[in-house]
Write a structure and sequence with these properties.
This protein has 291 residues and is mostly helical. It has 11 helices and 3 strands, in the order ααββαααααααααβ. The protein is globular and about 60 Å long. It starts with a helix and ends with a strand.
C-alpha cells in the first residue's frame, strides 16, 4: 500500500469517526430535549437537561389521560422514529455528498436504534413494582401507566424487533452505495469498518466516559458503571452487525448501486468540530444544564 493510500484510509477513518460523534450529538440530546419539552407542555417545571437524561417536576396536566400516559415518558422514542423516517427519505431521495451521505446514514440508524430499542428493551425491563419512581426505562414507565398491560407490551416488543431488523437492513443495503466493487472483500471491509465498526466502538467508549460527569452517574455510580456501557454497546448494535454483514457474513449484492466513496480527504475542520462537541458534552451537557 502506498503512502497516499495509507493516508487516504486514515483520513477516511478519522472523517467517519468525526461524523459518528456528530451523529450521536444529533440523536441523544434530541431524545432528551423531547422529554423536557413534552413534559413542560404538560405543565411540569424543568429541572435539568443533560446528555443522558432530562428532569422535570410537578406536572399540572391531566397525565391520567391515555394521551399523557403514553406521551409523558414515551414521546422521545416516538420522536426518534419520526426523525429516522424523515432521514431515511432524505437518504433515499436527496442528492448527498461524500460527507453528508454517511452522516445522514449514521444519524438515521442511531435514531431508529434509540426509538425502536426502547420498545424492545423495556418489554424486559418493566418491573411490576407499583412504585413508578423505581421504574427504569421510558416505555417501562408507559407500561406502568397501563398496569403492565401484556398486550401492549407484546405489541411494542414486536414493533421494536421489526425496527431493529430494519436498522440491520438499512446498514447492509446502504453500505453498498459506498462500495465500487461488491465482490472485493477488502473494499467491503474498509468501507464497513470506517462507517460502522470504528464509529460504533469509539462512541461506546467516549460516551460512557463523558457521561461519568452526568446526573445519573453521580446519583448511583455503581449502577451507572453497569448500565451505561451495556446501553452504549447494545443500543447501537446495528452498527456492529452492519459491519459484520457487509464485510464478512452476508453474500454481497449482485446489483452495483455505487454512488461514491465516503470522503477520504483531510478534513481538519470536521475533526475540530467533533472534538469541540466531545468537550461540550463532557463539560456542559453531561453534567447537565440546570434550571
Amino acid at each position: 500500500m502506498t503512502k497516499t493510500n495509507k493516508s487516504s484510509r486514515l483520513f477516511l477513518i478519522l472523517n467517519c469517526l468525526a461524523l459518528g460523534i456528530i451523529a450521536m450529538n444529533l440523536t441523544a440530546p434530541v431524545h432528551e430535549a423531547t422529554h423536557l419539552l413534552t413534559q413542560m407542555i404538560a405543565g411540569a417545571k424543568p429541572e435539568v437537561l443533560a446528555f443522558g437524561c432530562a428532569g422535570t417536576v410537578d406536572p399540572t396536566a391531566n397525565i391520567g389521560s391515555v394521551f399523557w400516559k403514553v406521551m409523558y415518558t414515551g414521546s422521545a422514542a416516538l420522536m426518534n422514529i419520526v426523525i429516522g423516517i424523515i432521514l431515511l427519505i432524505v437518504l433515499k431521495k436527496a442528492k448527498l455528498g461524500p460527507l453528508s451521505r454517511p452522516l445522514v446514514l449514521m444519524t438515521t440508524m442511531m435514531h431508529f436504534s434509540m426509538g425502536f430499542g426502547y420498545f424492545l428493551r423495556d418489554f424486559f425491563l418493566y418491573d411490576p413494582n407499583p412504585d413508578p419512581d423505581v421504574q427504569q426505562g421510558d416505555w417501562a414507565k408507559v407500561y406502568e401507566n397501563f398496569g403492565g398491560n401484556m398486550a401492549l407490551r407484546i405489541t411494542m416488543l414486536v414493533i421494536g424487533c421489526i425496527g431493529i431488523l430494519l436498522v440491520f437492513y438499512i446498514a447492509y443495503r446502504q453500505a453498498f452505495h459506498f462500495i465500487s466493487d461488491n465482490n472485493d472483500k477488502k473494499e467491503r471491509g474498509r468501507v464497513a469498518s470506517a462507517i460502522y465498526l470504528f464509529p460504533y466502538l469509539l462512541n461506546a467508549v467516549v460516551f460512557t466516559l463523558v457521561e461519568l460527569r452526568g446526573p445519573v452517574a453521580q446519583a448511583n455510580i455503581e449502577s451507572f458503571l453497569i448500565i451505561s456501557p451495556l446501553i452504549n454497546i447494545f443500543g447501537m448494535i446495528g452498527f456492529f452487525w452492519g459491519y459484520m454483514f457487509v464485510a464478512h457474513m452476508v453474500k454481497p449484492r449482485k446489483e452495483n448501486v455505487y454512488y461514491f466513496s465516503p470522503c477520504a480527504e483531510k478534513k481538519i475542520i470536521l475533526w475540530i468540530v467533533a472534538l469541540v462537541l466531545i468537550a461540550f458534552d463532557a463539560f456542559v451537557l453531561c453534567p447537565g444544564i440546570w434550571f
